[in-house]
Amino acid sequence: MSATANRYELEAIERLEDHAEDWARLGSEAGHPFATPEWSLCWWRRMSAGRELYSFALRDSSGAVIAILPLYVAATRPFRVARFLGYGDLMSPVCAPSDRAATARAMLEVTRRPHRCRAVLAERMPAEQGWGELLGGRLLRTDSVPLLRTNGMTWEEFMATKKRKFRGNLRRAEARLVEEHGLEFRLASDPDRLEADMGELFRLHGLRWGGETTGVFEGELAGFHADFAAAALRRGWLRLWLAEIEGRAVAAWYGWRFAGVDWHFQSGRDPAHDRLSVGTTLFVHTLRAAFNDGMEAYNFLAGDEGYKLHFAGEDPGAESRIVGSGPIASAAGLLIAAAARIPAGARRGALRAARPS
Q: The whole model's pTM is what?
């Protein structure tokens, strides 16, 4: 344990599970599901082979944990670089808003420790949280993160802001599916059925992409999402919607309800039903549910696809930076910027999802 700015102590984490209780509290403060211990723990259990943990807890003068830095060693040559656990659409140090400045100082300190990582590849940090200003470093890229705030409106009030033709097309598509094809929406809620429901999501996602490799649910990542979905279901976060015709799923929507927000992570559909617009109908159903259930917002997560921007009212965005101290951190930034991309990894942000239909 080392001192930071006299009032704080930085402690290396040897086992992520040992800090799960404090982490859960701070994850809610951080405000996004990728900051939860469940996300990082599920990912680390599936993906840790050959990787070195490089995570830290920050304690205040009373000994209370005020921040978690969920990091691992992502590269060792030509120098050691750390990265956030989990490859989520949004990532950040885990802390309350009031402790971000102290947490940022601690994150810079971990690049100065003995046997340290010389830099941290800090990807997809919520731009509106001000991490760029606090951490500095080199900005590598920005990403679109469309957001719809409900502003206390009902679904009917929100739809009244849209053109009459648009509203009519959506209503007719759903009515036809219900009346002529018996469409039903089902929210996954049965732990005994969850494995099969996730299997339907994976199947429909694969059908949507026609065999194209996306990297989202492949290999160990399928197991990771199955594990996290089970944890999210236990915590009341999981939102796995299935649109079913004659008892068979024809579209799926996967996300979470966390911190007063519905988070849209992935979806899938059977192209054989595209002429009926099952994907769009399910997507609109999830929006309607967010309004009807009094959510503060609906976060579309990474990507500026047209169907998202048609509904979103704003785009707070996310920033990826290389941060650290000294010439090695600067060199790391130059190397990554020269490559014109973040190092490859299994993350959804690489996709350019088409409009659901």
A: 0.89
